[in-house]
Write a structure and sequence with these properties.
The chain is mainly alpha-helical and 219 residues long. Helices cover 49% and strands 5% of the residues. The chain folds into two domains: 11-41, no CATH class; 51-217, Orthogonal Bundle (Hypothetical protein af1432), CATH 1.10.3210.10. The N and C termini lie far apart (61 Å).
Length: 219
Amino acid sequence: MREGISPDDLRQHTSRDPLQSDGCFKDNPGLMRVYPSERRVDPLNLTVEDIELCDIARALSRLCRYNGHVHGYISVARHAVWVAELLLDAGEDPQRALEGLHHDDTEAYLGDMIRPLKHGELGGIFRDAEERADLVIAEKFALSFPQHPIVTEADRVAQHLELEYRRETFWSDPESDELDWLTAHDAINHMIHADWDSTPKGKHTLLALRYGHGPGELN
């Protein structure tokens, strides 16, 4: 224990502060506080009003894929941007790329459960909660539900690439990933409301839009 902090100090602090160290609330342990919006949400019963882009970007950029079993760091946010980019590279329209960017949004509220648990006997409650959260997020951002098969395929390809990265030193910075995820969201929305040309000459890419080019400047 740090010098100057006594057990009595800790007890007095926790008796005054309704927020416990695990992010839950004494008056309702089913709630958690999300940042930076500081909303109190029930992750098992999310509403459309609970969902904020800033909260999703912050959380996903700080969640490491594969329960941290990687060389360096691969965030869920970075993975989501890769999936969106893969869809655009395959000639899919921006709306589908937006679905790719948001395909793991539930993890901002429920966490990233490793595959052996998620698809095992213990994962039933989690999968039900994830489906409910997916539906709410789809309503929030006008996404298709359930997820389109091409998004699932892009997710699989991204996972394959990440497995290759796991054999090498790879580092992804959370703060940069948070910004990239938000920028990607804005860029794809820009594409959705512009004329979409998927030919090699006219294709709009996230990379170009990240560096400040509007849709009309990419040809």
